[in-house]
Amino acid sequence: MKTATIREIKSELGYKDEKELVELCLALAKFKKENKELMSYLLYEASDEDRFIEGVNQEVSELFSEINISSFYFVKKSIRKILRLVKKYIRYSKKKETEVRLLIHFCTEFKKVLNTFSRSPMMIGLYQRQLKAISKAMSYLHEDLQFDYQQDLEELAIETDGYWYDVD
After folding, report:
1. How confident is the model at residue 168 (pLDDT cuts 50, 70, 90)?
2. Rounded distance, CA 11 to CA 5, Å?
3. Residue 155: how many CB atoms within 10 A of its CB?
4. Sign of CA dihedral 96, 98, 110, 159
5. Residue 132: how many other CB atoms lie within 10 Å
6. Which of 86, 97, 89 is nearest to 140 (CA)?
7. What does the alpha-carbon distance between residue 159 and residue 150 come to, in Å, rounded to a whole number?
8. pLDDT confidence tier of residue 159, bands split at 50, 70 and 90
9. Best label site of 65, 74, 87, 88, fewest CB within 10 Å?
10. Please, are residues 148 and 101 in contact by the beta-carbon 8 Å criterion?
11. Which tens digits make up the pLDDT trace of 51-72?
């Protein structure tokens, strides 16, 4: 089966009436969980981005509190799982301010765990990549917002074994 391009799909959707479009959307929602999550975001949460961010931040905090710290393997695996979840929510929103706020909260929670495993180059590298992602996303924001988030970003800089790890 040949997959149609987005342009072809958009053109074909233009010929469908409202009832057929609703049926297509429902078929997509039934097919995959991620499609249903995206539709839920677009229908219920996109209009109130602050509430969406608070809900995601609460979920992230909850997941960090449930991390099994008995083994480095479980910590690493859990943090990567949480990061995948955060990135998925960022893709749903497509807003740079949402990306910055979610990643800042992720790094704030991550820093608490990082204090326990601060000698791990893998953990420090993962943390540093998120700080760089925050910095990059901030560059698209208004100057006033950049200033506010820059202060939060500077608080996330860490020192490990005498070396400073920050956004540069």
Report:
1. very low
2. 10
3. 11
4. positive
5. 13
6. 97
7. 18
8. low
9. 65
10. no
11. 999 999 999 999 999 999 888 8
pTM: 0.86
Distances in Å between the alpha carbon of 30 and those of 2, 10, 91?
A: 22, 21, 20
Q: How far apart are CA 114 and CA 127, in angstroms?
A: 8
- Give percent above pLDDT 90 in the chain: 65
- Give residue 20's pLDDT band: very low, low, confident or very high (50, 70, 90): very high
8 A C-beta contact, residue 155 and residue 163: no
**Closest alpha carbon to 25 in 15, 11, 40:** 40
Of 79, 33, 35, 41, the residue nearest 60 (C-alpha): 79
